[in-house]
Each structure stands twice: as structure tokens, then as C-alpha cells.
Design brief:
disordered N terminus; 6% helix; nine-stranded antiparallel beta sheet; mainly beta; 30 strands
């Protein structure tokens, strides 16, 4: 794996695409024009070697595919997504005049996209799509195995150009009952320590107490990083830069605006990410001179702690990020949580060491 490659998608890419489809004053061989009246009707999704073998969706991370680029007649930057059907029919939803669904589509679109001609589709997403298409829930009796059908969709940057669809490929899979669709953690890793320090990002919970695929963690980032699915290895999948705020499996490194401590957010629901500079973490509360009086701590890169020496009064305190209540921590000193309870303190001079990592793991040491 080439961890040192950074992909930047900029206006140059879209300008290049626009040039591919722009009308020209003269018919030149070096200025190809896509003939939308004679578009290729299909491109090839290769049948995987494992297609007739059982794929257990509960124990698989991804289902891997390869495919050909549509024969546009010239190289064109193309985005690929996947669709799934349980009966190999691909009928769109039927709507009434108000836009309400009368008859649902016989397929589902799966989250995530690719710009290369190989990729791994999230196995949990496939399993959930099967359950939705079949109308199965936790009380349903599931078959020991079943056939499903996958196809690939190709889209050009020029949205006026119709999308193209590959042939469908049949797979033999083992479906599973509804469960958390996502793992508890994903991991951010970068060049801040020669690609050896891993920052854990923990998933939030949905209304049923299941991991919802929306991850958050904190850590120091230097110049570039990626997300990966395993704490101690680069086994697929990992995710890198597709375009601003978007990720793609097995893509390039993500550039960091400037070295610093960041809140790192990542979504496996729509393959997006966001990093927010943590410019300050402060103590606030009745024990710190008031609930709008910020006693700033200083980040120590060597230890990874936010440190300070502060004078506190009898009362309560909490910690907050960037002088704002959107991100704040309270609760137990050895397991701080977002919006946690106020922390009681007694008057005195304290040495403070705050370690901010992920939900439930962050902790503080208050020493008089």
C-alpha cells in the first residue's frame, strides 16, 4: 500500500471534464465530443471467483468487485456506485403526481462510490439492503443462504450525460438478522508518528442502542492521514480522499490544513468526513469563576494531554472545546462523556491533565 500518495480533486478536474463535452468550432481529433445518441449501452462487471461460494455477510467486512470502464471512446473521469436486487429485476419506483411512491423500486442503491475500477462494497450495507427489500425484521425466519444480484452504475461529472449500468452478477450469500450494521470503532492514522499512532473513533448509538456508523474521536494530525477498519493492520477496507468531505475505499491520503489537535468525524453511512481544529479546551463552571469564564488549558504534544495549573473554588466544573458548549465533557473523571454531569471540586490549586480521545474513554487527572 502506498500510504504516501495524496489525491487532490480540484476545479482542474471538473474543468477537464467540461472540456470533454464542450462544443467546438472545428471538428478536431484532439477535442473529442461524446455522442450521447450513440452511447455504449452497458459495461462489464466481472463475476468474482467467489460468486458461487457462500459469503457470510455477518462475518465479512466488504464484498469485492472489479469492472471495466465504459467505452466512451476516450478516457473520462467516472464515478461508480453499486445497486442490489434480490430477484434480478431493476424497475424504478412508480410515483403519483404528488411524488408519493405507489410501487417501490425493485432494487436499492448502496452508499459509497469509487473512481477506480475495483472496490469493496460494505457487507453490512448489503445485508441491510436485503432485509429492506425482502421486508424481513428480527422476527423473520431467514433462509440459510440465498442468491442476490449486484450491478454497477457509472456516472460522469457532466450530469446531463445519462448514467450507464453494468450487467448484473449473481452472488450466493448468508443473510443475518438485523443487528448493528457497523463496528464500534474505525481508526484514523497519519504521518504524525511515521504512520504508527492510531486514533480510535467510536460510533454513536441509534435509538435501539446499536452503533449507527457515525464516528468521532480526537487526536493530533500532522500533514496527512487516512481511515482504516482495523486498529493494527491495513487489511481492507481503508478509506481515503475522494473530494471535499467525501471518502472512497482504498483511495489516497487526506491532507491536513495545518499540524494540530483535531476533532475527527467520519461517517460510514455516506462515506464522509470532517476534521475540526481544537483551538482551545477550557475549564468552566461555578468552581472556575463562572459558567462563561474559560480557564484555558495548553496542549502538550509529547504527552497528548491538555495541561494547566488553575485555582478552583468550591463548586462544579466541566470542560468544553473552542469556548463553546457544542462539544463539552463531564461525568466520571476516568470516563468523561459528551454532555456528562458536572464535576464537583473543592477549593485549591490544581494541576490538570486532560486526555481527550473518544466517547467514554477521555479522562482527567486533577491533582492538588
Amino acid at each position: 500500500m502506498n500510504m504516501k500518495t495524496i489525491y487532490f480533486k480540484s476545479g482542474l478536474l471538473f474543468a477537464a471534464v467540461a472540456m470533454l463535452f464542450a462544443a467546438c468550432d472545428s471538428d478536431r481529433d484532439d477535442n473529442p465530443i461524446l455522442d450521447t445518441d450513440n452511447m455504449p449501452s452497458q459495461f462489464v462487471l466481472n463475476t468474482p471467483a467467489y460468486a458461487t461460494q457462500l459469503t457470510d455477510l455477518a462475518t465479512s467486512s466488504t464484498v469485492n468487485f472489479s469492472w471495466s470502464q465504459p467505452a466512451y471512446g476516450f478516457a473520462a473521469p467516472t464515478t461508480y456506485t453499486f445497486q442490489i436486487s434480490t430477484d434480478d429485476t431493476w424497475n424504478d419506483a412508480v410515483l403519483n403526481e404528488n411524488g408519493d411512491v405507489i410501487t417501490p423500486a425493485t432494487y436499492l442503491d448502496l452508499a459509497g462510490s469509487f473512481t477506480t475500477v475495483t472496490g469493496g462494497v460494505n457487507a453490512n450495507a448489503i445485508n441491510n439492503a436485503i432485509l429492506e427489500l425482502k421486508g424481513w425484521d428480527e422476527d423473520s425466519t431467514l433462509p440459510a443462504n440465498m442468491d442476490i444480484y449486484m450491478r454497477c452504475k457509472a456516472m460522469l461529472a457532466d450530469t446531463s450525460v445519462p448514467s450507464l449500468y453494468s450487467n448484473s452478477v449473481k452472488l450466493l450469500v448468508v443473510p443475518s438478522k438485523p443487528s448493528s450494521s457497523f463496528d464500534e470503532f474505525v481508526y484514523a492514522i497519519g504521518d504524525d508518528s511515521s504512520w504508527s499512532t492510531v486514533h480510535k473513533l467510536r460510533s454513536a448509538l441509534d435509538e435501539n442502542g446499536m452503533f449507527n456508523g457515525e464516528y468521532r474521536g480526537f487526536g493530533f494530525l500532522n500533514t496527512e492521514f487516512k481511515f482504516r477498519s482495523h486498529e493494527d493492520s491495513w487489511d481492507a477496507p481503508d478509506w481515503g480522499f475522494l473530494e471535499d468531505g467525501k471518502l472512497e475505499a482504498q483511495a489516497g491520503n487526506i491532507a491536513v490544513p495545518a499540524p494540530g489537535f483535531y476533532m475527527i468525524e467520519m461517517s460510514l453511512v455516506d462515506l464522509s468526513f470532517k476534521i475540526t481544529a481544537v483551538n482551545s479546551i477550557s475549564i468552566v463552571g461555578s468552581g472556575a469563576g463562572g459558567w462563561e469564564n474559560d480557564l484555558d488549558l495548553t496542549y502538550d504534544e509529547a504527552s497528548g494531554a491538555w495541561k494547566g495549573t488553575v485555582n478552583l473554588e468550591d463548586g462544579e466544573i466541566k470542560f468544553r472545546m473552542n469556548h463553546d458548549w457544542t462539544i463539552n465533557w463531564g461525568g466520571e473523571a476516568d470516563g468523561l462523556t459528551q454532555d456528562g454531569a458536572n464535576i464537583e471540586v473543592t477549593a485549591g490549586t490544581y494541576s490538570v491533565e486532560l486526555y481527550v480521545t473518544y466517547e467514554g474513554d477521555s479522562k482527567v487527572k486533577l491533582s492538588k
